[in-house]
Amino acid sequence: MNDCLFCRIVAGEIPVKKVYEDEHTFAFEDVNPQAPTHVLVVPKKHIIGLKEASAEDADIVGLCHLAAAQIARQRGIENGYRTVLNVGPGAGQSVFHLHVHLLGGRDLKWPPG
Ligand code: 5GP
Ligand code: ZN
């Protein structure tokens, strides 16, 4: 999708600080970090969001989370981190290409706001 910000980032058309890439996923530093570690993991496939994902996307959604876990392990933040999917505008989703936020490196409160 040419008009999708994260598809353009995956395609290398918009510069980001890349963290990780494999066949199905791409991870990069969030431009407006909310924690010392704030990485976005996105599927290379354009999926609008979790509520638009279908059964055929199960593997890719899981792979995004496993990539986040690997990044957290590499950064030594396994004492406590959070993976977040904001689903829909009411939950703060502002980019409509599915993405997992990986947040860590500080104490995280519960419940989130
Ligand atoms: P959402 O609000 O949809 O859950 O998360 C979108 C995230 O994308 C936000 O945390 C925002 O800071 C990040 N973001 C938006 N535009 C860009 C960009 O151009 N580059 C990077 N690296 N992050 C972005
Ligand atoms: Zn996209």
Biggest beta sheet summary: 5 strands, antiparallel
CATH class: Alpha Beta
Q: Report the order of strands and helices.
A: HEEEHEE
Fraction in helix? 10-25%
Word description of this protein:
With 113 residues, this protein is α+β, with helices and mostly antiparallel strands. The chain has a single domain (5-104), classed as HIT-like (HIT family, subunit A). Helices cover 21% and strands 22% of the residues. The protein is built from 2 helices and 5 strands. The protein has a 5-stranded antiparallel beta sheet, with helices on one face. Guanosine-5'-monophosphate binds at residues 5, 14, 16, 28-32, 40, 86, 92-95.
Helices, strands, pairings?
Blueprint: H1 5-10, E1 18-21, E2 25-29, E3 37-43, H2 58-75, E4 81-84, E5 100-104
Antiparallel strand pairs: 1-2, 2-3, 3-5, 4-5
Bound molecules: guanosine-5'-monophosphate (5GP) and zinc ion.
Residues 5, 14, 16, 28-32, 40, 86, 92-95 line the site of guanosine-5'-monophosphate.
Short synopsis of the structure:
The protein is α+β, with helices and mostly antiparallel strands. The chain is built from two helices and five strands; from the N terminus they run αβββαββ.
Keywords:
HIT family, subunit A, binds zinc ion, five-stranded antiparallel beta sheet, binds guanosine-5'-monophosphate, 113 residues, single chain, 21% helix, alpha+beta
